[in-house]
């Protein structure tokens, strides 16, 4: 069959109509894939709910608002047990001395801070840590007023007397007793000598920074019959003033008033030096 004959064969009506349909019909469209429902955009976080903020404040601080005040007085609190080189159990309320020392350094360097108020309610704790805090407080160049609320026991006594002026609440107590090892037995003379030297450091510091003598303090420290299963003395409020440990019986208002007086005197002294 020639080429012309094959062309004529294809152009016959059945084939011609079929070819025309094939050319004229559009190609089948692919099945459109249905996109899944798009995830709605996340709502931008709005302002914090004031009710939630108020409830959080009550839960954490026990009050509805916290007063914001720029003050020239730095307040440092020593609460619970003074924690030193050994970490205490988590259920103990502690004050870590490595947290207090940088605060005191910052207060000394800050020119806006003119005075420091130290509030104590402590049962004592690590002897070396307590003495370190007491030495830092006593070496500040700015006026320091200490206030014993509740209790300033054991190694809290040197901290309480380390300031420029000291107060104790009328119902607050201070327990004076010798240094001892908890749960350990003194088995060699060197251990006893070490404790005796440490005791001398504590007694000497207290005598230098208060009006009590070393002899009278040791007498209170070794007194028998007052503390159960221990020797020492429990001093309450006015008795601490009578013995010369604390300067005055008073509360927060008295302590702040005295601190403001000391700061005013310090300002006058600086002005006189400048003149």
From TrEMBL:
Keywords: Hydrolase, Protease. This is ATP-dependent Clp protease proteolytic subunit ClpP. GO terms for biological process: proteolysis. Residues 1-53 are annotated as: Disordered. The keyword Protease applies. One of its GO terms (molecular function) is ATP-dependent peptidase activity. InterPro entries: ClpP, ClpP/crotonase-like_dom_sf, ClpP/TepA. The keyword Nucleotide-binding does not apply. Belongs to the peptidase S14 family.
């Amino acid at each position: 069959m020639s080429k012309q004959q094959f062309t004529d064969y294809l152009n016959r009506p059945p084939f011609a109509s079929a070819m025309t349909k094939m050319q004229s019909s559009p190609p089948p469209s692919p099945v459109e894939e249905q996109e899944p429902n798009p995830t709605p955009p996340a709502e931008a976080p709005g302002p914090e709910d004031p009710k939630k903020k108020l409830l959080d404040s009550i839960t954490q601080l026990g009050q509805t608002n916290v007063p914001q005040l720029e003050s020239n007085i730095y307040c440092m609190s020593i609460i619970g047990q003074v924690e030193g080189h050994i970490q205490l159990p988590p259920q103990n309320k502690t004050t870590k001395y490595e947290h207090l020392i940088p605060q005191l350094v910052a207060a000394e360097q800050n020119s806006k801070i003119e005075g420091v108020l130290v509030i104590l309610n402590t049962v004592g704790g690590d002897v070396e840590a307590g003495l370190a805090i007491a030495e830092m407080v006593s070496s500040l160049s700015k006026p320091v007023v200490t206030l014993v609320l509740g209790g300033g026991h054991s190694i809290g006594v040197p901290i309480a007397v380390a300031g420029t002026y000291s107060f104790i609440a009328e119902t607050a107590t201070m327990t004076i007793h010798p240094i001892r090892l908890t749960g350990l037995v003194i088995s060699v003379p060197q251990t006893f000598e070490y404790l005796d030297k440490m005791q001398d450091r504590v007694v000497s510091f207290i005598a230098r920074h208060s009006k009590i003598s070393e002899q009278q303090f040791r007498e209170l420290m070794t007194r028998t019959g007052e503390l159960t299963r221990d020797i020492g003395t429990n001093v309450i409020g006015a008795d601490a003033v009578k013995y010369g440990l604390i300067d005055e019986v008073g509360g927060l208002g008295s302590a702040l008033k005295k601190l403001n007086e000391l700061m005013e005197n310090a300002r006058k002294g600086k002005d006189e030096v400048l003149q």
